Amino acid sequence: MTSSEVLSMYENIAGLTNQMAAAARMGDLNRLDQLEDQCATEARGVGTGVAALSGGQRLRKIDLLKQILANDREIRDLTDPWMNNIPGLSRQ
Description:
- α1 (about 5-25) runs parallel beside α3 (about 55-85).
- The chain has a single domain, classed as Flagellar protein flit (Methane Monooxygenase Hydroxylase, Chain G, domain 1, Up-down Bundle).
- It has helices spanning about 5-25, 30-45, 55-85.
- By secondary structure, the protein is mainly α.
- It is built from three helices and no strands.
């Protein structure tokens, strides 16, 4: 995976997780599930190995990872209370 492909993948994942957070805010769990599947498909590229980045590209990747993690935290904050009320699905 080239450095451009690495950044493109992380940008796509950041965009998908942003959409996932929006779906979670709206309580649209069907859309959230669809986006989660798309995100997982996109993230499979990491399994093939990624090029090391430096300079501005490295900083961009770090910014994207921070966005992804912030979106993940928001999604969890919104969905965990709901998930914890379903017997057998507690995510504690």
